[in-house]
Each structure stands twice: as C-alpha cells, then as structure tokens.
Amino acid sequence: MDLSVLWFWIVAFLFVGYFVLDGFDFGVGMSLPFLGRDDTDRRVIINTIGPVWDLNETWVIVAGASLFAAFPEWYATLFSGFYLPLLLILLALIARGVSFEYRHQRPEAQWKRRFDLMIIVGSAVPALLWGVAFANIVQGVPLDENHNYTGTLFDLLNPYALLGGLTTLLLFFTHGVVFVSLKTDGDLRGRARRLAARSGIATIVAAASFLVWTGFASGTLWFWILAAIAALSLIGAWLANARGAEGTAFTFLAITVATTVAALFAALFPDVMPASNDPANSLTIANASSSGYTLTVMSWVALISMPLVLAYQGWTYWIFRKRVTRASIEAVAAH
C-alpha cells in the first residue's frame, strides 16, 4: 500500500478514536441539565468521566499533529478555511477542561452553577461543530487554484452540514447518557436509561437522514457497507438499552460512532478536501501528502508508539471500571 494512502487511514483511525472516546464525554457533559437533579447527582455524572476525559481528549491532538505532518496541504487549507469553527471548538474544550478542574474549588452553589454551564456549553459546541466541519469536508467547499478556501462562515452553515452537526450532537448525547447509566446506580441509572431511549429515537432519525443524504451525494461501496453497519449498531444499541443491557448498548454505540466516521472517510477517499466549485482545485491524497521519507519515519514512530498508547488507555479504563455511586460522593463530602 502507498504510504500516503496508509496515512490517510491512520488519520481516519485517530479521528475515529477521538470521536468514540471524547464523543461520550461530550454526551455526559450535555446530560447535566437533564439528569442532574441536585449537586450530588451532578458530581456523580461528572465523576463518571473524571479519570478519563483528559486522556480521551488527547486523541484530537495526536490526530491534528498527524494531519499536519502527513498532509500539510490538507492541514493548511482546513485550519485556514475553517478557522472560526475550529477556534470555537478549541475555546469550548478549554472552558470544559477548566470547569472540570475548578468546579469543586469553592462550595458556593452559584460558583458551581457557572462551571456546570461551561461544561454543558463546552460539550455541546464541539459535538455540533465537529459534525458541521466533517460534513463540509465530505461535501466539498469552494477552493481556488492554490487550494485556499474562498467561502464564508455562512457557506459552512448549509443544510447538509447542519444536519451533520445535529447527527453528531444527538449521537454523542445518547452515547454519553448510556455511559452514565453504565457507570451509575439507583435512580440516576434508571433515569439515564429512559433518557437514552428517548434521545435514541431522535438519533436514529437524524443519523439515517444524514447517512442516506451522504450516500446519494458521494457514497461508495465501502461507504454503504460501513453506513449499514452503523445503522444496525445504532438500532441494536437502542434495543439493548431498552433491555437494560448498558454495556451492550454502549458497545453498539461505540461501533456506530466508529463506522459512521469511517464511512465519511470512505466517502471522501481518494480526496481529502474536494473543491465544490471546480474538481481541478481539489486536494487529494496524492497532492496533499508529505514526502515519502517523512511518511516512512512517521510510520515507524506510529508502529512503536501506537500499541503502547492503546495498552495504556485500556489499562486506565480497566482501573476505573467500577460504578460511581451517590454514597461514595456523599462520603467524600462528609469528610
């Protein structure tokens, strides 16, 4: 396999990992106003991702760095043309991270409410805008002969892209709510399951609409195969949640997110940034990639480091696999 093609799929894998892992973090954050009836509930919800959210978020740093190194032309066009949406995502991620660390520093209810709001907004904004960004990448945007984006912010907010954003928002929300049910007990667990049942229906409708639209616009055989797996997994997750099988539902949703992102990359291949105004201006794997030497060095680094990263991530989740209970939170508060 050509190294530039290999790195296209490595970048795809890194974004798949990011959206699967940080996606349910976003969902947990967005669930606060729906599931957090009191401060203890909200602390339980936040603590479900407390040990892992920062590790999950590092996947986007690795994905961005790999994109910069393997496809500098793609990186330059994407980060210049989509500057404002990506800046909003960055600011939202910073606000969310700060809130996780500072929320518990003072006892006042008003202090905590402000940081809770930052967590909610800091989760919802990336969940929406990542979908908008990737939908625009797949659909194509106007580029000049030097591969510079020539549109405006409002060009990015087209119906197809907004549907993509709504799909990721709902998908991450449902994934996060199922994770809350998986990691908690008692009344909170039951409420999370019921909320996931309701949001799951909306997610199925939005995801089906988005994938069908994408398929008819730029679908390939591999896109349809991956989209079909995503659809079946999403329905399976909804059914598993209805039976109270949170672990199965969470796994199916992870498969749904993974195959949906993979399907978008399959629809994009072999382009990396299609030009909607003139196909001759499109960025492809061939004209956007780094030199063969650079890709060779990166391949050896990835071969050595990736298994270590995956092993450490798996170990972390195993260590923090137990449920978070109200009793444990109240016991800490009592001290």
Explain what the structure shows.
The model has no long low-confidence stretch (mean pLDDT 93). Helix 1 runs antiparallel to helix 4 (53-70). This protein starts with a helix and ends with a helix. The longest helix is centred in the middle third of the chain and has 33 residues, at 186-218. The protein has helices at residues 3-30, 32-35, 39-49, 53-70, 72-81, 83-102, 109-139, 153-156, 159-183, 186-218, 221-242, 246-268, 285-288, 292-319, 326-334, and strands at residues 271-273, 283-284. The protein contains 15 helices and two strands.
Descriptive terms for the model:
electron transport; single chain; two-stranded antiparallel sheet; mainly alpha; 335 residues; 15 helices
Strand and helix map with partners:
Blueprint: H1 3-30, H2 32-35, H3 39-49, H4 53-70, H5 72-81, H6 83-102, H7 109-139, H8 153-156, H9 159-183, H10 186-218, H11 221-242, H12 246-268, E1 271-273, E2 283-284, H13 285-288, H14 292-319, H15 326-334
Organism: Agromyces bauzanensis
Keywords: Cell membrane, Electron transport, Heme, Iron, Membrane, Metal-binding, Transmembrane, Transmembrane helix, Transport
Protein name: Cytochrome c oxidase assembly protein
Task: Compose a concise summary of this entry.
81% of the residues lie in helices and 1% in strands. It is mainly α and 335 residues long.
Order of helices and strands: HHHHHHHHHHHHEEHHH
The main β sheet shows up as: 2 strands, antiparallel
As for the number of domains, it is 1
How many E strands?
2
Mean pLDDT across residues: 93
